[in-house]
Design a protein that fits this description.
162 residues; mainly alpha; 5 helices
């Protein structure tokens, strides 16, 4: 494959994962906030999409930036393993594993982005933040594998994934 075409596939993966990570993290935050809220906290059903849109604005820099980085790294990793991925199930499983593994680095990424400042409740290295990161990273990588599984053939994979 031509290097420019490969770079385009890698950048598309990064952009897709940036948007997907932002949206999925905002959705998870709304679910958590609704879980912790009082029974009548919502006055109208349309408060949920408004909350998701508001959270997407706030999540864009941390979730989008890290999603882009993980999308690029995950796509590069998967492009090195075309001969080992023999089915869609294997592609989804490997994508989920790589997504979960890469997403555990989110606290380190936030420490770098925040300039070494810690959060008050246990800092960025906290099991809740790591669990939340995995709950965002795995669905994003599975979604990417589901949407772009046909582009695996562009790297010369012997597998017939279609």
């Amino acid at each position: 494959m031509q290097p420019t075409k490969m770079r385009a596939h890698v950048l598309i993966a990064g952009v897709f994962c940036a948007f997907a990570a932002t949206l999925i993290s905002a959705l998870w935050m709304v679910v958590i906030l609704l879980w912790l809220a009082e029974p009548n906290a919502l006055q109208h059903w349309y408060d949920v999409p408004i909350g998701v849109a508001d959270l997407c604005r706030g999540m864009w820099v941390p979730a989008g930036g890290f999603g882009f980085l993980c999308g690029v790294l995950g796509r590069l990793y998967l492009s090195l393993r075309p001969a080992h991925i023999t089915s869609k199930a294997h592609l989804f499983a490997e994508s989920a594993f790589v997504g979960a593994l890469l997403s555990t680095c989110f606290p380190l990424f936030m420490l770098i982005v925040m300039g070494g400042r810690f959060l008050p409740l246990g800092g960025w290295v906290n099991w809740r933040i790591i669990l939340f990161s995995i709950a965002v990273g795995s669905p994003v990588s599975i979604l990417y594998a589901g949407v772009f599984h046909h582009s695996r053939l562009a790297f010369g994979s012997p597998a017939k994934l279609l």
